[in-house]
């Protein structure tokens, strides 16, 4: 290698360098990211029995239970997290912790999603749930700043796709659009509950020019992605089974890939894919990070973003996801910067907010990493 070639070579990524990189996470569930210590404390207060009362043992239980290859069983773990998020105190504590933990991991912008309808068991109203979560985020952001970490958080109000409250939850999101809520989502069991079941809710959001994303292409195939696109989604939650609409000849480069009508549409319009590699392995998308379609989709030019999905269930963080992609799929600093910028400009925050974060945090952060390397 010549001196000129080596000058342009990207720096070798280390765990310490990755930890410091500015990150953007668009797909992270509030009820999937609890600290085990927090769960234990809250469970004791509300009288809920957990599978374990030692923090390490509890953390291991969640990973083992989620690591089944079944989305249905994966979703069952949420019964315990949701059980301790039925009071103002519990919701506030979990949201505050999330802001602090994400900021400490280098996340500069996060969209946190949760379903208010799942937190009404002890008599809270939908609006009281939203208020408690928002106050928790505000307090967590302030505490993170005191520790030297600047993070901006927007919330996505989620409706459960198997329920019949989509319009009501969409109206809740709209009522709080200037109070921290930046978008809408549907989540839960994907197979058998197509996005079109919530068509009325999506129509209401489109009338108000309010952004939404849809879980699609995780537990169901390309047809689910097609359905989400038909509803007008601006992003795809996971979306990785879009590869079912792409023919890739064995041992050929991406130049020989043949895209179907759906995948071509998503590519041409650069609809961001909210990919969560570790979570996808748990739900059977791929066997290893190296085999995960995220790298193939990136190489084809899709708008790929990297996410955590559920930090507790996957025992993960944004830094861990980056480390796995670097170690097992040869992702470079340039790859991570591109995915981070795609995520930033695909965020539902207002443009001026995104441009400030990019100019003041993301670009300088990557420049510093290159200088360090």
Summarize the structure.
Residues 22-358 form the Adenosine deaminase domain. Helix 9 (166-175) packs parallel to helix 10 (199-207) and helix 16 packs antiparallel against helix 17.
Can you lay out the helices and strands and say which pair or pack?
Blueprint: H1 3-8, H2 15-20, E1 23-29, H3 36-46, H4 55-66, H5 71-76, H6 78-83, H7 88-104, E2 107-114, H8 126-146, E3 152-160, H9 166-175, E4 181-187, H10 199-207, E5 212-216, H11 222-230, E6 235-238, E7 246-247, E8 258-259, H12 261-268, E9 273-275, H13 277-282, H14 293-300, E10 304-306, H15 318-329, H16 333-345, H17 351-372
Parallel strand pairs: 1-2, 2-3, 3-4, 4-5, 5-6, 6-9, 9-10
Antiparallel strand pairs: 7-8
Helix pairs in contact: 7-8, 9-10, 16-17
